[in-house]
Each structure stands twice: as C-alpha cells, then as structure tokens.
Amino acid sequence: MEPMLKDDVDVDTGGDMDSQFEVIVESLRSRYNKSEAPHKRILLRSAVELANLVTTSMTEPPPKINTRGRPKAGKKNKQSKKEASTKREPSLFEYKESVVASCSIKVIRKNTRSASANFVTQMPVEYQPYVLDTKNVMADGHYGFRTVASLMGFGEDNWVRVRQDLMNELSRNLSLYAGVFLQEEKVGEVLESLNCFTESARYKHWFTLPYMGYLVSSAYNVAFITFSNEISLTFLPLHSAPPERPRSICMGMVNNNHFIHVFLSDERHMPPITLSWRTHHKRVADDWGLAYDNRRIN
C-alpha cells in the first residue's frame, strides 16, 4: 500500500506552500513510477483535472432543429435578415451561454432502463469487468440528485431530500469546503446551484463534479465512486470516521450529460482517491484512507 500524505500538509495554515507543493508532487511522482499502465492513465487524468480546474464535462443539450416540412415564410425572412446583418457571429462561449439561458429542460417520462447493457459499455474500459448492472433515473435536470437518492435507498423521487442534505453539509462546513474547492467564491456558486426545487432544473442547477462528490461522501458518510470516460474518482468523507462496516456507492456518467446508478460486483477495484481528500480531511477521517487506499485498481 502506498504511503498516505499526512493531513498536516494544509494550504490553509499559512506555512511554506512551495515546500508543501513539492511534497505532494514528489508523492505523486513516486506513486506514478510504481504503478502499472492502467493506474498511470488514471493518475494522468486526475492531474489534468487538477491542472485545468475543470468540473464535469456535461453540456446542455443543443436546441432541436426542425428538419421536417417546408420552412415557414416568417422564419425564412428572419433568417435572411440575420444573414444580411453585419453583426459578428457570437463566440463559442457566448453561444453556449445563450443556449443555457434560453433552453428549458422538459421532464422526460420515458422508461429507458432497458438500455442498461449499453450503459455498461459507456463505463471506462478498465472498470467494466466490475460493473454488475446499472439503473437509469428520470432525465429532468435533477438526475444527479435522483441517482444519489437511489444509491442511498431513498428512492429517486426523493431528490429534494438530497439537495437539502447537501446544502446543509456545505453550510455547516463553509471554511472546510473553501479549501477543498480551492476557490472561496465557488462555495457560494455551489450553494446557489443546489438551491433548486422546481419540477425541472436548468443547466446552472445540475449536479457537478468534483464539487458535489465531496458533499455526497461527507453528508452520508460513504465512499462515493464516480465513473466517467474523462476521469473516475473516489470521494471519501472529510470530517467523520468510517462506521464498523464502511459503505460504498457508485455513480456513472453516460451520454456525456446524464448520471446513472451503478452496481459493482467487486468494490476492491476502484478509482484513485481525490487529492483534496488527502490534503484537507480531518484526522478523525484517517481510517477511511486506510480502509480504501489499497482498493485502487492497478
């Protein structure tokens, strides 16, 4: 088992941050050099995420284009006027922002649980042998929270409870999460994102990783495993000791913008533990690392 980083390496103490950074980098380099190819690939994905400070790769569904029938006269004239305009085309960033602002998400009632086999093939190839089954949830913009509700045994329709639980977790530990998120302003953004209890949720209120991964694991005192073809991670509780029988739950991303419940046949093979857990967890949570650090896939 690789040695764990001591939790006294803390950027919030006012110590020599350059020296602390070198300790972390050396630990990562040592772990990388001792790992086999599959685990090296996972570590590289984690490093890319940290370097770019990305969240999830989920994107808003693009607006539908009507390809049936003859265009209406009004629409044709409007298009011609637009083409004749000398106004510059919006940048990709501006276009995406306009889509987010104008596109509402309709509640989808269709049952797609028969697509379970296809979902398995969308999991990272190194973890597919350990995926026993998957369970879909309603795609209404709350699907990340629906998935967590399903994972915790509440039933997916209790997504409101999950949003409230995560808001409470964040509100009670503001200074802790300011360090974990690396940006104080991100705490307010995540709180605002969680505060949505309407029938459908728009883009800014979706479940986002890695931020909400820390909240889920700590709010429910579980190991929270997330699978994605971009990066897969294991989130551990930050401020509580594991129970006598630690519990793991697993979520997967499919179709680039949807989360599902994943059933694992073998929890001894799991993604790497997040770097922020190693540097920000309280000492009372040390045993989570001892219990799970040797379960990483390698």
How far apart are the termini? 11 Å
Please state the average pLDDT score.
76
What order do the SSEs take from the amino end to the carboxyl end, as H and E? HHHHHEHHHHHEEEEHH
Strand order of the largest sheet: 1-5-4-2-3
List keywords for this structure.
disordered N terminus; 298 residues; alpha+beta; 5 strands; 9% strand; five-stranded mixed sheet; globular
Q: How does this structure look, described?
A:
By secondary structure, this protein is α+β, with helices and mostly antiparallel strands. It is built from 12 helices and 5 strands. The protein has helices at residues 17-34, 37-52, 73-84, 92-102, 116-121, 143-151, 159-172, 174-180, 184-194, 211-220, 275-280, 286-292, and strands at 131-135, 223-227, 233-235, 248-254, 258-264. It has a 5-stranded mixed β-sheet with strand order 1-5-4-2-3. A hairpin with a 5-residue loop joins β2 and β3. α8 packs across α9 (184-194). The longest helix is centred in the N-terminal third of the chain and has 18 residues, at 17-34. The chain is globular. The N and C termini lie close together (11 Å). Residues 1-13, 52-65 and 74-114 have low confidence and may be disordered.
